[in-house]
Structures are given as structure tokens and as C-alpha cells.
């Protein structure tokens, strides 16, 4: 092929490293290359359809999109060609000489992780699908001509560190679009066999909304393999489970099975088709700070954008498409977020997804529990961000609790099991479930058989602060305000003493309060402690203890509320200390501070003053030593 001004350039370091790892150590299924190249060709056709809305001349006398595959066993080559938007030289260099910027580092980390263990299949997740061609080809040639341009460009590489780029003979280039020629390796010549190619296209790319044809001999007529009918416009009874899986894998860039499929057509004031999936495993960017969604927006099967935020951020793990019949085709991507029709679509899609998840949770708990395991921490963000749908979301959330063991607990089950006299849904939040389970604040609840939710995700401290209710039952932190346990019967066989505190203990509590006046807001007898001597709780109208910690760590609190020190009035140590007379004032002062520091340690904090704590502890030890 005649070219001019071919220039050799080196791949970016990451590209060279990626190619070596991909070809030699990572991928177990080479068939993925054809799916990726067809997907790229379809995207190019969709981009042309979009640009042609405002520039119809780009279509010329060839308005129908198509993807053509040419197999040539004699030349040991396979060609994939499209009549899409095409590329100029600058675009070709950017697209084929560098890895897509987003996700590059994560992709390399995943490749490294896969080297020592099972094979990875990560191509489409990171914008590197084109490079999968080097799994089957020892040389790849790309000829492209951008729609509306009089120039064509050629890219050539063996995938070993460099590539050549230059102008191509316009007569040898497509009239518009891109031609990818794979010069196949000896062990990949089966990819020129018509039967295998047809099976691969039908099984992996049958959903692509652009017709795909195959020419299996140089002089043969092409025959159509797929008709380009978008899967999402078909009725459910026309689509097989395998069709759904193949489409999911293409649109999601993942190679697992979808955990749930949501396919429907909305009619009425707005008409649109939705085909959405919940992945079977966590996408790599699930907790990315940008937290953008991955639902593609089409208008009458013309791709518009994948950045329309069609579902809330807490559903960002969803993958799929929404195809509207009502939005204008010429809407700009900048104005789309303000369009009221899109707002109505977003509301309808979100409600349908949540309602379908509720049905799944009711009808197939095992399948839903798997979804919750992967995405529960993200779904709970909705309780903080989307108050309007809190009722739906509260039906979906699952929690660990003091009685649930390893099985997540639904709120409906919690409410059903509430004790007589119990009027609230009790919870405790923190950063570690094991520590939560051993917290002294739980003792009184355990003694009464009251279930307490153990919330260890950071978002839990925020949504619980919004004072939600479920089936008329408010949420109440066990580390905030009074425990209000007097009306709930004890269930332990060895019931703890619940009698009134003695006058000596009350005097001792008053002494502690006076001694710790700068550190605590109150010192009171506790009805939540049965085994421990002390614990800390937040005042009734102050933030929950965990929520206060998070706000303080984020610099969102100028001052923190003084906690309440609760003392078990029936604990033997407290009773003995209360009997000490006024002559032991200094010792009792040390004890008061040590009890406070003990409560802080039990709460996961450090003593206020480590040196003072050490000195008081030393004096306590010396007091107990025999006189020499």
C-alpha cells in the first residue's frame, strides 16, 4: 500500500508493558478480540449518526451504518471494516498509541494481580480493547478516513514497542470509516474459517445495533450475520438469557454473569426502552471519587452520551442503555442535564430499578443477598442522598446485628422480632464489627434479648443522623441519650440487679461528676450496663458518637459535645469505691479520672492525657502493693 511520510514512534511505556502481559500471560480466551473490534466499529458508527444530526452531509450517499468482516485464508489475514466516523492522524495517534487515561493504573494493577493466579478478562473495562488484536496477530494495520475529510491515515505495528503512522493513499482507504487488518499468527489461522467467525459474531456481538456482514473469500458476495436490531427494542420473549449475557458483557466491559436483568418499555407521557443490568461482581471503579454512572443514553437508537446520569450515584454500579423516543436528537450534551423529559426518565428508571430489586429480595433472597454483598455499601448512600426514596431503600438494606450471625438482616425481620415494650430500632455504628459486638453499651440490650444493628460502613453514621423511620419505628443509637430499657423485661437466667442505686453510690457519682466537670456533661447511673463498670454515650441532642468522630476528623466540627459517663451502680468495683470515705479524696479523684479513661478505651479512643493516665495508674498499683 502506498503511503507517505510514515513516522515511527514508540508506544507509551504502559502500552508496551500492557501488550507483553496481555499476549503472554493474562488472557485465557482469545475470542475476545473480535468482540472488542466489532464493539469499537459499532461505536464509530454511532458517533457518526450523532454528528450527522447537525451535519447531514457527513453521510453522503452512504447513510446506512455497517460493519464488514473479510476473511482471507491465503493471505492469513482478517479485516474488520466500518463506515463510521473514522479518524484523522491526530485522533489515530491518540487512540492507538496511548491507553485511555481513565483506568490505566487500575488496569495495570489488575494485570499484575492476575499474573500469579487465575486468568483475567478485563479488556473492555479500561478502554484498551483494541490492543486485544495482538493476541492473534503479529502485525496490525489500521487505515482510516474521517467523515468529510479528503485525507486518509495509516497505522502499523507489530505490538513490540513501536508503531508507524503516516498519510495513506486515498484510493486504498475506505471512503469513510476505519479498516483494521490483522495479519494472523500461525496458531490463529482458524479465525479465517467462516463457520467459526459466524458463530463468534452471533454469540458475542449479535446485539450490536449495526448490521454485521461476512465475506469469506476474496471474490465472494458478503452475507449478513446480524441485522443490527437493537436488543433493547425487542420484547422479552424474543431475547434469550444468552443474548442478555452477551449484551451485558459488551456494554459493561465485564465477563461475568449479570446478577439481575431489568428490561422494560415505558409508555405514557414519556416513551423509552430500558435494558439494564446489575453486575455479578464489583466493577473496579465502584468506589471511585467521581462516582459517575455507566448507563448509555440513546434517542431513537442514536447514541447520545454515556454521561447523562440516568440513575442516582448510589446506583452507579448499574450498566445498560436507555433509549428515548421523545428527547430531541439535536439536544446538546451540555443541555441534556437540564431537560425536564430526561428528569422524568431518570425518575421512572430509578423507581423501576428499586421496585424490581424489592421484588427480587422478596422472591429470591439468595440472589439478592449476593447483590447486597457486592453493592450494599453503595446502595446505603441513597439513604443519605435520596430522602424521597428512603421508604424503598429501607426495604432493600441489610444489616449485621447482635443476633443475625453471618446472615444479613432485613428491617422487616427486625421489626417482626421486636420485644414487647420496644418502640425503636436500635443500632450501634463504628468502624469495626468485632469491636462493636464487644461494646459495653450493648450489655443491657443483650440482657433483654433486644436485637441491635451493627453498622460498620462509614455512610451508616450519616444516614442514621437524618432520623429516618421504618414502619413507624424510629432509629435510635445505643450510644446516644438514655437507653430507655425499663419497660422491657429481662430474659437472662441470672438477671442483673436493677434496684435503685444506694445513697453511697449516688454520692460517689456526684463526686465523679464534680471531678470530671471539664470532661463530661453528666455522670449518671446506667441501665444499659450489666457487666462493665462504665461506658460513654452522647447526650440526647448531640450527634451519635461515631457520627461526631467522622465530622471531627473531616474538620466539620469546631467543638465536640462533652459525653455522658454512665456508671454501673451495681458493679462490685463501683460499690467498693463508693464506700471510701472523705479521707481518700485524692485516691478517689485518681479513680474518677481512671474510670473516664477506661470508658474512652472501651469506646475505641485513647486516654485524654497519656502521661497523667500513667501516673494515676502507677499510684493505684503502688497502693495495692504490700508495705516493704
What does the model show?
The protein has a 9-stranded mixed sheet with strand order 1-6-5-4-7-3-2-8-9, covered by helices on one side. Strands 16-15-18-17-20-19 form a 6-stranded mixed sheet, with helices on both faces. The termini are far apart. Helices cover 34% and strands 19% of the residues. It contains 19 helices and 23 strands. The radius of gyration is 33 Å and the shape is elongated. It has 3 domains: 203 residues, Heat Shock Protein 90 (2-Layer Sandwich); 139 residues, Ribosomal Protein S5, domain 2 (2-Layer Sandwich), CATH 3.30.230; 122 residues, Heat shock protein 90, C-terminal domain (Four Helix Bundle (Hemerythrin (Met), subunit A)). The relative contact order is 0.07. Helix 1 runs parallel beside helix 4, helix 2 crosses helix 5 and helix 18 crosses helix 19. Strand 19 and strand 20 form a beta hairpin. About 3% of the residues have low confidence. The chain is an alpha+beta fold and 628 residues long.
Amino acid at each position: 500500500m502506498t503511503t507517505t511520510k510514515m513516522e515511527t514512534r514508540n508506544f507509551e511505556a504502559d502500552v508496551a508493558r500492557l501488550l507483553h502481559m496481555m499476549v503472554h500471560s493474562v488472557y485465557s480466551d482469545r475470542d475476545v478480540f473480535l468482540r472488542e473490534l466489532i464493539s469499537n466499529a459499532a461505536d464509530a458508527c454511532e458517533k457518526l449518526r450523532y454528528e450527522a444530526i447537525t451535519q447531514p452531509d457527513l453521510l453522503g450517499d452512504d447513510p446506512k451504518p455497517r460493519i464488514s468482516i473479510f476473511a482471507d485464508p491465503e493471505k492469513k489475514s482478517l479485516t474488520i471494516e466500518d463506515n463510521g466516523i473514522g479518524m484523522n492522524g491526530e485522533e489515530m495517534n491518540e487512540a492507538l498509541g496511548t491507553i485511555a487515561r481513565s483506568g490505566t493504573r487500575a488496569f495495570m494493577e489488575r494485570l499484575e494481580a492476575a499474573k500469579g493466579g487465575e486468568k483475567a478478562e478485563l479488556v473492555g473495562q479500561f478502554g484498551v480493547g483494541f490492543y486485544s488484536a495482538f493476541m492473534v496477530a503479529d502485525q496490525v494495520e489500521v487505515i482510516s478516513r474521517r467523515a468529510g475529510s479528503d485525507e486518509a491515515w495509516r497505522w502499523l505495528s507489530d505490538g513490540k514497542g513501536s508503531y508507524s503512522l503516516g498519510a495513506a493513499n486515498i484510493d486504498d482507504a475506505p471512503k469513510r470509516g476505519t479498516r483494521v487488518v490483522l495479519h494472523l499468527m500461525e496458531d490463529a489461522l482458524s479465525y479465517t474459517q467462516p463457520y467459526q467467525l459466524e458463530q463468534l459474531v452471533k454469540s458475542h456481538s449479535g446485539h450490536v445495533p449495526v448490521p454485521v456482514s461476512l465475506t469469506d473469500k476474496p471474490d465472494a458476495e458478503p452475507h449478513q450475520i446480524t441485522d443490527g436490531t437493537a436488543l433493547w427494542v425487542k420484547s422479552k420473549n424474543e431475547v434469550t438469557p444468552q443474548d442478555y449475557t452477551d449484551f451485558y458483557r459488551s456494554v459493561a466491559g465485564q465477563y461475568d454473569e449479570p446478577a439481575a436483568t431489568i428490561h422494560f418499555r415505558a409508555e405514557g407521557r414519556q416513551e423509552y426502552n430500558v435494558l439494564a443490568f446489575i453486575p455479578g461482581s464489583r466493577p473496579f471503579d465502584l468506589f471511585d471519587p467521581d462516582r459517575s454512572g455507566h448507563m448509555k443514553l440513546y434517542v431513537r437508537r442514536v447514541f447520545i452520551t454515556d454521561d447523562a446520569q440516568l440513575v442516582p450515584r448510589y446506583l452507579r454500579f448499574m450498566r445498560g442503555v436507555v433509549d428515548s423516543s421523545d428527547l430531541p436528537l439535536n439536544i446538546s450534551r451540555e443541555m441534556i442535564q437540564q431537560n425536564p423529559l430526561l428528569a422524568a426518565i431518570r425518575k421512572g428508571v430509578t423507581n423501576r430499578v428499586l421496585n424490581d430489586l424489592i421484588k427480587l429480595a422478596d422472591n429470591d433472597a439468595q440472589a439478592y443477598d449476593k447483590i447486597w454483598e457486592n453493592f450494599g455499601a453503595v446502595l446505603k448512600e441513597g439513604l443519605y442522598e435520596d430522602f424521597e426514596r428512603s421508604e424503598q431503600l429501607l426495604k432493600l438494606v441489610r444489616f449485621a446485628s447482635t443476633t443475625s450471625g453471618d446472615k444479613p438482616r432485613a428491617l422487616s425481620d427486625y421489626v417482626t422480632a421486636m420485644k414487647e415494650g420496644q418502640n425503636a430500632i436500635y443500632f450501634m455504628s463504628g468502624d469495626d464489627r468485632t469491636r462493636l459486638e464487644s461494646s459495653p453499651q450493648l450489655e443491657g440490650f443483650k440482657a433483654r434479648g433486644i436485637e441491635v444493628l451493627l453498622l460498620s460502613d462509614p455512610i451508616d453514621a450519616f444516614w442514621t443522623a437524618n432520623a429516618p423511620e421504618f414502619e413507624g419505628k424510629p432509629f435510635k443509637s445505643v450510644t446516644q441519650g438514655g437507653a430507655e430499657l425499663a419497660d422491657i423485661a429481662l430474659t437472662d437466667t441470672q438477671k442483673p440487679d436493677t434496684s435503685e442505686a444506694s445513697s453511697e453510690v449516688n454520692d460517689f457519682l456526684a463526686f465523679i461528676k464534680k471531678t470530671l466537670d471539664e470532661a463530661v456533661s453528666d455522670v449518671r447511673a446506667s441501665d444499659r450496663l450489666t457487666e462493665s463498670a462504665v461506658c460513654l454515650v452522647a447526650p440526647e441532642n448531640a450527634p451519635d458518637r461515631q457520627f461526631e468522630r467522622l465530622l471531627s476528623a473531616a474538620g466539620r466540627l469546631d467543638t465536640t459535645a462533652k459525653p455522658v459517663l454512665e456508671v454501673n451502680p451495681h458493679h462490685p468495683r463501683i460499690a467498693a469505691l463508693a464506700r471510701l470515705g472523705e479521707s481518700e479524696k485524692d485516691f478517689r479523684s485518681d479513680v474518677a479520672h481512671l474510670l473516664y479513661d477506661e470508658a474512652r478505651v472501651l469506646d475505641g479512643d485513647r486516654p485524654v492525657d497519656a502521661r497523667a493516665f500513667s501516673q494515676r495508674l502507677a499510684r493505684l498499683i503502688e497502693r495495692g502493693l504490700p508495705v516493704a
